[in-house]
Design goal:
With 569 residues, the chain is of the alpha+beta class. Among the domains are: 220 residues, 3-Layer(aba) Sandwich (Vanillyl-alcohol Oxidase, Chain A, domain 3); 117 residues, Uridine Diphospho-n-acetylenolpyruvylglucosamine Reductase, domain 3 (2-Layer Sandwich). It contains 20 helices and 18 strands. Strands 15-12-14-13-17-18-16 form a seven-stranded antiparallel beta sheet, sandwiched between helices. Strands 5-6-10-8-9 form a five-stranded antiparallel beta sheet. It has a four-stranded mixed beta sheet with strand order 1-2-4-3. α12 packs across α14. The protein binds flavin-adenine dinucleotide (FAD). The site of flavin-adenine dinucleotide (FAD) has 40 residues, from β3, α8 and β10.
């Protein structure tokens, strides 16, 4: 833990404003120039032997099948985009293989790139995206939309069966700030902008978006919208879906533009149909989002609670009766003891008893200080003990480093993975208990007792999310080991009537649980939407909705006789 007596300004270190877009070296996370080492205390705590024992194969040893899209498709894509934006290069294909869940990383470390796309294309405009979708639909080639590639739910691993090939559409050439409406405080940005670059462009105009997921160094706007991402400042700025005012969607059948005005009573809000659609309906090429002035004043501080229950009650009081800080999170006893909120001290000696809450405020000076004073009174009334800015600033400046620890842990033979859910306040404690028990039992049964840590990082008037981090020794088959734990936690979440995901999304990993959650009729309705927008079922097949039966042809390209259709679609 850091020195709580130092002022926030003195303690300020690298944060979101100091980060730059990095090209990650899959399967490892983050800026290759700044890899993490396991803090010695953490290594001692885990008791690992050889720190590189499970490092896995290097990229040249990864097996990759020859690309097999029909030559006519490749020719048409080159014609539409230019040869330099259509590639079957081995490293590009591997760099676009799956996402960043621990199973995704383990598979690549095992040399398995069987989900690699056949081609990677980079369209440079909305019209080019529409053209790519038309070509792929005409030839029944599966399309994987790809922005930052940080999916942790299997959102980038489509089903291949019945398709003539897989093309990943990487939208990162769509990287312009289209415009800022300073009066309405909205900005229109192309969907391929990485979060880091979007904030950089907005700051030059005196604004921020304020969306800081822990994957901030990798993820981008198209992915944020497609997964309904939640950032660490969600208490103050909202989830990404709450920031979106308008969207531009390219589908195999043409374009949909949504968001004529901020609110409307004209029918259902179709923006909500596109937000969270995970590429199953088409490709988002542009978003219009709410922005706010760059905050002049920021304070982050720590609070200690005797236990998780009293800390959760304090967060609930703020969420229900206010005032709301900008950042509000609470680690349970285990996560607090391990020091996961401050990766630099992970596993260190400086253990804070009880549960650590991080509370941050951003805005104008006077407003921040008024809100901070009022919120501090609520926290104190709820039994919180103020720890000063030290823990808050340590969290703020170290918050994007935590994911860097996963690679050295996996190298050392430690299994580490996260999962999340959300429920009502009245059920939160019970949900935490059953999910922890399910994960623990599943891993105990394999002879690998885990540490299960938990925190609340997104709060609402009616409820909150729970985010679990699981650490244990790897077995000889860590993929099967985690699959058993994940199934147990999914079952526990379903049995507790909680949501299968708060912000990671559905992908393929949560698909069955999601379908059980919404029921057959709702699923049928969503599949009907997909059949209308994507009659050939080429958009991210298998993700979110599972197999969708093809309807009778409703547009010219689907009538082509050379389009192979899978039995049952
Ligand atoms: C270390 C780490 C930390 C994370 N922390 C958070 C967090 O704090 N909060 C959070 O919400 N999530 C988090 N995630 C999950 C992930 O970062 C989010 O889901 C993020 O929104 C994905 O953005 P992306 O640009 O990487 O999308 P991708 O991974 O590229 O895509 C995600 C899904 O959306 C689809 N898609 C991508 N682009 C488009 C598009 N333009 N149009 C239509 N569909 C598209 C893809 O096909 C895929 O199914 C984390 C992941 C990692 C690895």
């Amino acid at each position: 833990m850091t020195d709580p007596t130092t002022s926030p300004v003195e303690r300020a270190g690298p944060d979101e404003t100091a980060l730059r877009v990095v090209r990650m070296a899959r399967p490892r996370w983050g800026d290759p120039a700044t890899p993490a080492q396991l803090p010695p205390a953490a290594a001692a705590l885990i008791g690992t032997g050889d720190p590189g024992a499970r490092r896995g194969v290097n990229i040249d040893e990864i097996g990759l099948a020859d690309p097999h899209v029909p030559p006519a498709v490749r020719a048409a894509l080159i014609d539409a985009l230019g040869a330099e934006h259509v590639t079957a290069d081995r490293y590009e294909r591997i760099a676009h293989t799956r996402g960043y869940s621990t199973p995704d990383l383990l598979a690549l470390r095992n040399g398995d790139a069987s989900d690699a796309p056949d081609l990677v294309v980079r369209p440079g405009s909305h019209d080019e995206v529409v053209a790519v979708l038309g070509i792929c639909a005409a030839h029944r080639v599966a399309v994987v939309p790809f922005t930052g590639g940080t999916s942790v739910v299997g959102g980038l691993a489509p089903e291949r069966a019945g398709f003539a090939g897989v093309v990943t559409v990487d939208v990162t050439r769509l990287d312009a700030l289209v415009g800022v409406d300073e009066i309405s405080r909205t900005a229109t940005l192309q969907a391929g902008l990485r979060g880091v670059r979007a904030e950089e462009l907005l700051r030059e105009r005196g604004f921020i978006l304020g969306h800081f997921p822990q994957s901030y160094e990798g993820a981008g706007l198209g992915g944020y919208a497609a997964t309904r991402s939640a950032g660490q400042s969600s208490a103050g700025y909202g989830r990404f879906d709450e920031m979106v005012e308008g969207l531009l969607l390219a589908t195999p059948r043409g374009t949909i533009r949504l968001g004529t005005a901020p609110k409307s009573a004209a029918g259902p809000d179709l923006r909500q149909l596109v937000l969270g659609s995970e590429g199953a309906f088409g490709i988002i090429t542009e978003v219009t989002v709410r922005i706010r002035p760059v905050p002049a004043h920021r304070v982050f501080e720590g609070w200690r609670f005797a236990d998780f229950g009293s800390g959760a009650a304090a967060l609930r009081a703020l969420a229900q009766d206010g005032p709301m800080p900008t950042v509000l999170r609470l680690s349970d006893e285990v996560e607090t003891a391990i020091g996961l909120t401050d990766p630099a001290s992970a596993g260190g000696d400086e253990v804070t008893g009880g549960c650590l809450a991080i509370v941050g405020y951003e805005g104008h000076h006077q407003e921040v200080e008024a809100r901070r004073a009022a919120a501090s009174a609520v926290l104190e009334d709820a039994g919180g003990v103020a720890l000063g800015p030290g823990p808050g600033e340590a969290w703020r400046t170290g918050r994007f480093r935590a994911p860097y620890l996963r690679d050295p842990l996996l190298d050392a033979g430690v299994l580490v993975e996260t999962l999340e859910t959300v429920t009502y306040w009245s059920r939160l404690a019970a949900l935490k208990t059953v999910v922890t028990a399910a994960i623990t039992d599943a891993l105990n049964a394999q002879g690998t007792p885990p540490l299960v840590m938990c925190h609340i990082s997104h709060v609402y008037a009616a409820g909150a999310s729970l985010y679990f981090t699981v650490v244990c020794p790897q077995t000889d088959d860590p993929l099967a080991q985690w699959a058993a734990a994940k199934k147990a936690s999914n079952d526990a979440i379903r049995a507790a009537d909680a949501a299968i995901t708060h912000h990671h999304g559905v992908g393929r990993d949560h698909r069955d649980a999601y379908h059980a959650e919404i029921g057959d009729l709702a699923l049928e309705a969503l599949r009907a939407v997909k059949r209308t927008l994507d009659p050939d079922g080429v958009c991210n097949p298998g993700v979110l909705l599972g197999s969708t039966r093809c309807s009778p042809p409703v547009h010219p390209v689907s009538t082509r006789s050379d389009v192979a259709r899978p039995a049952g679609g």
